[in-house]
Structures are given as structure tokens and as C-alpha cells.
Amino acid sequence: MWKGRSSVRMNGAGSCEGEAGAEQYFTRSLTAKAPMEMGSRSTGKFYRIPEGKGPHSVGCTDLMTGDAVEGSFLRLYYPCDATDNEEAAWIPDKEYYQGLSDFLNMYRVVGERLFQYYVGSVTCPAKSNAAFKPGEKYPLLVFSHGLGAFRTIYSAICIEMASQGFIVAAVEHRDESASATYYCKKKSVSEPEESTSNMEKEWIYYRKLKTGEEERCLRHKQVQQRVQECTRALDLILKIDSGEEVTNVLNSNFDWSSLKDSVDTSRIAVMGHSFGGATVIESLSKEIRFSRCGISLDPWMLPVGDDVYQNSVQQPLLIINSEKFQWADNVLKMKKLISNDTTKKMITIKGTVHQSFPDFTFVSGDMIGRFFKLKGEIDPNEAIDISNHASLAFLQKHLSLNKDFDKWDPLVDGVGPNVIPGTNIDLSATEPE
After folding, report:
1. What span, in angstroms and rounded, lies between the C-alpha atoms of 316 and 291?
2. CA 431, CA 433: separation in Å to the nearest integer?
3. Terminus of the chain with fewer CB atoms < 10 Å: N or C?
């Protein structure tokens, strides 16, 4: 959701940037909001995460395997049959509010109440545990979230991809970069039985930098774990596709056997935002099965290892940047990665901020959302449409899809309303003549 930086600087609007800055402005935004400014229980349907615009209805379900941190945890978005199932919870557990509070330097008791009041009734427009729609093979996207985020809060992107005929595995990372996550472990014999389940949730919260700790070392270590988690998610979905039975430790009535022979294993891509954008780049360099392409949304390049720049990313790559977030050193690293490879593209969406990609931009009011950089100058629905359309056009080309997404091909080259090729950042002072 937010990337971190070792330093904090002030931008032209007078708000702090960087890890600490993001924490400061978002904390202020939450404590300052009036009830009409976000989707509370009384107004939760007024501010809504956008529904998918493709031909498919969308379902989602959660999958966790194993009883240790090394297992897999993901939310799967997929084309589904028409159903009356309820929409899925957007933030499903109060511990995520606590984790967001920790990440934003808020007292947990305060943060939990604020989040519960303002977004507790928000749902994502995907039907919970709806029956999978069989009958064709769908390409697979593995999605990696940003710093301080978790598996559910990029639902506008994931739902749109699923509505257009993709299966999307949104990984929840356990590298201590998520605000909160958990795994299920067996209860000890001495613990009282409060339910029929013999499993309990073991929560993992965001780890802040320690005093004097070098950030790049930590983030590079984390991104390596993230790549492993994306790879395990891919392994898991391919096992399910092959008909192998998997045990979901979460209580769910979803029929996983319905996915058998439904994944187009020749069409697999990886996608992510911010720290997840760095995870995309590292995954392309490390995992051969992500051989077709990747999409990196407003990437934070600090975690990317030096070895990755030495011609280790051969696959096509689309980088979609926001206008207000990037800075010269970060963009120069992207340009070094892209070099003169015509299959690698960079575009910038005008009027956008870093938070134009996660769902928070849709559930905050216009005035507060813009003041605290949860929204940009562009309408958030238009911004996410541009990003999604460019992504779909890129995926059609490099996954060889028989769709009509090529109508958005100009966006991939930065041609169209509110999009430019390359970057808006002035690199003249940093590039050699």
C-alpha cells in the first residue's frame, strides 16, 4: 500500500512523503474525518469499490494451506456463475484494523474503533464462495500487495481482471511487510475448547525498522520471501488445476475440485503494487514459470537486488506509475531495467497518487481523500480504468489472448487522455549527458 523510504521529505503540497510521512498523513486523515466522509454503517453503500466491467460475474474465496508460517495464504478471485451469495467482507478481521493502527502509529484501541466505524460495513463486489464458472481455461494472475497492505485491499483491480476472464491469486505476504496476517496452528491440549475447531489464528504484524537498521537490507530480504510466497501460490493453484486435493484449513464451503483443468497453464503472469511492484520484478528474474510477462504498478525499487539489473529480467514488463509519487532515483532504476527493450514499457497516469491503486481511494470522501493523498486530481474510477485497460491490453499481447483488449493498445504506449509515455519526473539533473 505504501512503500518505505529511509528518509522523509516534504512535497509541494506540504505533506510528508516516505514511510513515516505516509503514517503521519493517514493517521491525521482518519482522526479528522467526519462520518459523511467515509463509508460508515450509515453511508457504506454510498462509497463503493467498483464492480468488474467484464462479461463475467466474480466470486472470491480464501485459501490457506499448512499450519505454519511457511504455508500459503491467498484470496482467489475468479469468474463465477450467477448467484445470490453475499458480497465478501473487505477487511475480514478486527486484527487487520489493529495492524493498520500499528503501521500508522495509532493506538490500537483508537484505530480499531475508527476503522470499524468508517469502513466496517464496506464489502468488495465479489460473491463470497460463489460457484466457480467452468467450461473454459482461464489465464492466471498472481498479485502481490504493497507495504502495510494485505490480500483484500486491491479488490478493484483483482475483480476487474476476474470479470474479464482471469483467475487471480492475491497473495497475503508473511514477511512482516503486511499490516497484519496470520496462519492457523493447532491448539495446544491445555487450551480450553471454545469452538469445535482445533485450530487457532497466530497473528503476524508489520515490523517497523529498528533504530539504526539499514532499510535496503531488510526490504531485500523480505522481497526474497515474497517471491517464494508467490511461487508457492502458483504451485498451489497448479496442483488444484491438476486435480490434486488440497486441504484448506479455513472454514469454507467452496468446491476446489471445480477448478480442475480450468487454468491455462501456458498463460501465467504476475502483477503487484509498490513493494508488490518490486516483488513482480524479482519474481520475473527468479521464477521461470512467470515466463510470459509482468505488470508493476508504481513500483518501489529499493528492495530490488543489484543482480536483477544485469539482464536477468527477459520477460515483457509494463510499469504503470502515478504522477505524484515517483522520484528521480527510483525512476532511473526502472529505466535501467527497461533499457532499450521494446517489450518493456513505462507509462504515467496524470493526476494520480500512490494510493490511486488500492481500494482506500474509493471509500474515502473527495475532500479528505484528496487533502491526505488518498485520492489524486483525477476521478479514482477513471484512474483505475486507465490502469486496468492498459494492463489488459498488455496481457492480451503477451499472453496471446483472443480478446478485444487490443482496443486499449494506445494506453500501453502512453497515448490517450490522462496518460503519458515514460515519466513526468525531470531526470535531466541526474542522467549523464
Report:
1. 9
2. 6
3. C
- Digit-coded pLDDT (tens) for 218-242: 999 999 999 999 999 999 999 999 9
Cβ count near 32 (within 10 Å)? 11
For 212, phi and psi rounded to 5 degrees?
Answer: 80, 0
298 part of the active site: yes
Q: Which amino acid type is present at position 132?
A: F
379 is catalytic: no
**What is the signed CA dihedral for 103, 107, 108, 109, rounded to 10 degrees?**
-160
Q: Of 354, 387, 389, 398, which residue is the catalytic one?
A: 354
Question: Using one digit for the tens of pLDDT, what is the confidence trace for 13-65?
Answer: 333 334 444 444 444 444 444 334 444 444 444 579 999 999 999 999 999 99
Options 274, 356, 364, 391, the catalytic residue: 274
Rounded Cα distance between 24 and 263, Å, is 43
Q: pLDDT of 262-305, one tens digit each? A: 999 999 999 999 999 999 999 999 999 998 999 999 999 999 99
Tell me which of 62, 175, 298, 359 is the catalytic residue.
Answer: 298
Backbone dihedral angles phi then psi of residue 295, each to the nearest 5 degrees:
-130, 125
Q: pLDDT, tens digit, for every residue of 363-377?
A: 987 776 776 688 999
pLDDT at 42: 41
Is 354 noted as a catalytic residue in this protein? Answer: yes
